[in-house]
Design a protein that fits this description.
1 helix; about 35 residues; mainly alpha
Length: about 35
């Protein structure tokens, strides 16, 4: 684990990052169940 995280980003930034990551993952996976 060479990656050292000094501290978690602000709440808004964290939410945006999580949302973007989820969207990207869903788009990449393209699961029929997650078809909105």
């Amino acid at each position: 684990m060479a990656e050292q995280k000094p501290q978690q980003p602000p709440a808004p930034f964290r939410s945006i990052g999580d949302l973007a990551r989820e969207l990207l993952e869903k788009s990449t996976n393209q699961k029929p169940e997650a078809a909105e």
